[in-house]
Amino acid sequence: MKTPEELTDLFRAHGRKVTAQRQCIFRVLHGDVTHPTAEAVHARARAEMETISLKTVYQTLHELADLGEIAALDLGTGTARFDPNVEGAHHHLVCTRCGKVRDLHADFRNLAVPDGAEEGFEVGEAEVVFRGLCASCRRKGGSRRRREALVSGARADH
Questions:
Q1: Domain of residue 39, CATH code
Q2: Helix 4-13 crosses helix 20-29 at what angle (to 10 degrees)?
Q3: What is the pTM of this model?
Q4: What is 87-108 written as a DSSP string?
Q5: What is the pLDDT of residues 16-32, one digit of tens each?
Q6: What residue numbers bound the domain in which 136 lies?
Q7: Which residues of 128-141 are buried (b: 16+ CB within 10 A; e: fewer)?
Q8: How many domains does the chain have?
Protein backbone atom coordinates (compact mmCIF):
# COMPACT_ATOMS: atom_id res chain seq x y z
CA MET A 1 0.00 0.00 0.00
CA LYS A 2 1.16 3.50 -0.75
CA THR A 3 2.33 5.80 2.01
CA PRO A 4 -0.13 8.30 3.52
CA GLU A 5 1.59 11.07 1.55
CA GLU A 6 1.27 9.12 -1.72
CA LEU A 7 -2.42 8.45 -1.03
CA THR A 8 -2.96 12.16 -0.37
CA ASP A 9 -1.34 12.98 -3.73
CA LEU A 10 -3.39 10.25 -5.45
CA PHE A 11 -6.67 11.63 -4.08
CA ARG A 12 -5.75 15.14 -5.20
CA ALA A 13 -4.71 13.87 -8.66
CA HIS A 14 -8.15 12.26 -9.03
CA GLY A 15 -9.98 15.38 -7.90
CA ARG A 16 -11.02 13.87 -4.60
CA LYS A 17 -11.26 15.93 -1.47
CA VAL A 18 -8.35 15.56 0.97
CA THR A 19 -9.37 16.19 4.56
CA ALA A 20 -7.67 15.74 7.91
CA GLN A 21 -9.99 12.77 8.52
CA ARG A 22 -8.95 11.06 5.30
CA GLN A 23 -5.29 11.64 6.06
CA CYS A 24 -5.86 10.09 9.48
CA ILE A 25 -7.40 7.02 7.79
CA PHE A 26 -4.41 6.81 5.42
CA ARG A 27 -2.07 6.77 8.44
CA VAL A 28 -4.14 4.11 10.22
CA LEU A 29 -4.07 1.86 7.16
CA HIS A 30 -0.38 2.26 6.42
CA GLY A 31 1.46 -0.95 7.25
CA ASP A 32 -1.71 -2.71 8.46
CA VAL A 33 -1.75 -6.32 7.21
CA THR A 34 -4.70 -7.45 9.35
CA HIS A 35 -7.41 -6.96 6.69
CA PRO A 36 -9.32 -4.64 9.02
CA THR A 37 -13.05 -3.99 9.03
CA ALA A 38 -14.29 -0.43 8.65
CA GLU A 39 -15.19 -0.54 12.34
CA ALA A 40 -11.62 -1.49 13.29
CA VAL A 41 -10.22 1.34 11.15
CA HIS A 42 -12.73 3.70 12.76
CA ALA A 43 -11.72 2.65 16.29
CA ARG A 44 -8.03 3.19 15.55
CA ALA A 45 -8.70 6.51 13.83
CA ARG A 46 -10.81 7.72 16.77
CA ALA A 47 -7.78 7.27 19.03
CA GLU A 48 -6.13 9.99 16.95
CA MET A 49 -9.20 12.03 15.98
CA GLU A 50 -12.22 11.68 18.29
CA THR A 51 -14.71 13.30 15.93
CA ILE A 52 -14.11 11.08 12.89
CA SER A 53 -17.32 9.39 11.75
CA LEU A 54 -17.82 5.80 10.70
CA LYS A 55 -19.48 7.13 7.53
CA THR A 56 -16.27 8.98 6.60
CA VAL A 57 -14.26 5.80 7.18
CA TYR A 58 -16.59 3.77 4.95
CA GLN A 59 -16.57 6.40 2.20
CA THR A 60 -12.79 6.68 2.27
CA LEU A 61 -12.26 2.90 2.25
CA HIS A 62 -14.61 2.51 -0.71
CA GLU A 63 -12.87 5.34 -2.57
CA LEU A 64 -9.52 3.67 -1.95
CA ALA A 65 -11.01 0.45 -3.33
CA ASP A 66 -12.35 2.33 -6.38
CA LEU A 67 -8.83 3.64 -6.99
CA GLY A 68 -7.38 0.13 -6.68
CA GLU A 69 -5.37 0.92 -3.55
CA ILE A 70 -7.14 -1.62 -1.34
CA ALA A 71 -9.48 -4.52 -2.02
CA ALA A 72 -12.88 -4.84 -0.38
CA LEU A 73 -13.30 -8.51 0.59
CA ASP A 74 -16.32 -10.57 1.49
CA LEU A 75 -14.82 -13.60 3.20
CA GLY A 76 -17.98 -14.82 4.83
CA THR A 77 -17.09 -13.33 8.21
CA GLY A 78 -20.25 -11.23 8.34
CA THR A 79 -18.59 -7.93 7.54
CA ALA A 80 -16.47 -6.52 4.75
CA ARG A 81 -12.72 -6.64 5.25
CA PHE A 82 -10.25 -4.36 3.51
CA ASP A 83 -7.02 -5.76 2.11
CA PRO A 84 -4.18 -3.29 1.58
CA ASN A 85 -2.18 -5.89 -0.35
CA VAL A 86 -3.25 -5.40 -3.95
CA GLU A 87 0.11 -6.36 -5.44
CA GLY A 88 -0.22 -9.73 -7.08
CA ALA A 89 -2.84 -12.41 -6.73
CA HIS A 90 -3.09 -14.13 -3.39
CA HIS A 91 -5.53 -16.09 -1.30
CA HIS A 92 -6.63 -15.94 2.33
CA LEU A 93 -6.61 -17.88 5.60
CA VAL A 94 -9.58 -17.04 7.86
CA CYS A 95 -9.87 -18.03 11.52
CA THR A 96 -13.39 -19.29 12.18
CA ARG A 97 -13.18 -18.39 15.85
CA CYS A 98 -11.69 -14.88 16.06
CA GLY A 99 -12.07 -13.76 12.42
CA LYS A 100 -8.38 -13.07 11.87
CA VAL A 101 -7.50 -12.91 8.15
CA ARG A 102 -4.04 -13.50 6.69
CA ASP A 103 -2.70 -13.51 3.16
CA LEU A 104 -1.73 -16.83 1.64
CA HIS A 105 0.70 -16.80 -1.25
CA ALA A 106 0.24 -20.12 -3.00
CA ASP A 107 0.16 -21.20 -6.61
CA PHE A 108 -3.26 -22.45 -7.67
CA ARG A 109 -2.81 -21.72 -11.38
CA ASN A 110 -4.10 -25.17 -12.29
CA LEU A 111 -7.30 -24.65 -10.33
CA ALA A 112 -10.18 -24.53 -12.81
CA VAL A 113 -13.88 -25.12 -13.16
CA PRO A 114 -14.32 -28.60 -14.67
CA ASP A 115 -15.32 -28.61 -18.33
CA GLY A 116 -19.07 -28.29 -18.70
CA ALA A 117 -19.63 -27.19 -15.10
CA GLU A 118 -19.31 -23.45 -15.73
CA GLU A 119 -23.00 -23.25 -16.71
CA GLY A 120 -22.48 -20.36 -19.10
CA PHE A 121 -20.17 -18.39 -16.82
CA GLU A 122 -16.97 -16.96 -18.19
CA VAL A 123 -14.61 -17.27 -15.25
CA GLY A 124 -12.18 -14.38 -14.96
CA GLU A 125 -10.43 -15.08 -11.69
CA ALA A 126 -10.64 -17.29 -8.63
CA GLU A 127 -9.86 -16.86 -4.98
CA VAL A 128 -9.28 -19.64 -2.49
CA VAL A 129 -10.26 -19.10 1.15
CA PHE A 130 -9.09 -21.59 3.76
CA ARG A 131 -11.01 -21.58 7.04
CA GLY A 132 -9.75 -22.99 10.28
CA LEU A 133 -8.15 -21.88 13.53
CA CYS A 134 -5.25 -19.47 13.85
CA ALA A 135 -2.35 -20.35 16.15
CA SER A 136 -3.65 -18.13 18.93
CA CYS A 137 -7.12 -19.70 18.93
CA ARG A 138 -5.63 -23.20 18.78
CA ARG A 139 -3.54 -22.42 21.87
CA LYS A 140 -6.68 -21.18 23.67
CA GLY A 141 -8.39 -24.53 23.48
CA GLY A 142 -8.14 -26.37 20.22
CA SER A 143 -10.90 -27.01 17.80
CA ARG A 144 -14.52 -27.64 18.71
CA ARG A 145 -14.40 -31.01 16.91
CA ARG A 146 -11.39 -32.08 18.96
CA ARG A 147 -13.08 -31.03 22.23
CA GLU A 148 -16.28 -32.83 21.22
CA ALA A 149 -14.30 -35.98 20.39
CA LEU A 150 -12.56 -35.82 23.76
CA VAL A 151 -15.88 -35.37 25.59
CA SER A 152 -17.47 -38.23 23.59
CA GLY A 153 -14.46 -40.45 24.32
CA ALA A 154 -14.67 -39.64 28.03
CA ARG A 155 -18.39 -40.56 28.08
CA ALA A 156 -17.69 -43.88 26.36
CA ASP A 157 -15.10 -44.75 29.00
CA HIS A 158 -17.61 -44.45 31.86
A1: 1.10.10.10
A2: 130
A3: 0.78
A4: SS--EEEEETTT--EEEE----
A5: 999 999 999 999 999 99
A6: 88-158
A7: eeeeebbeebeeee
A8: 2
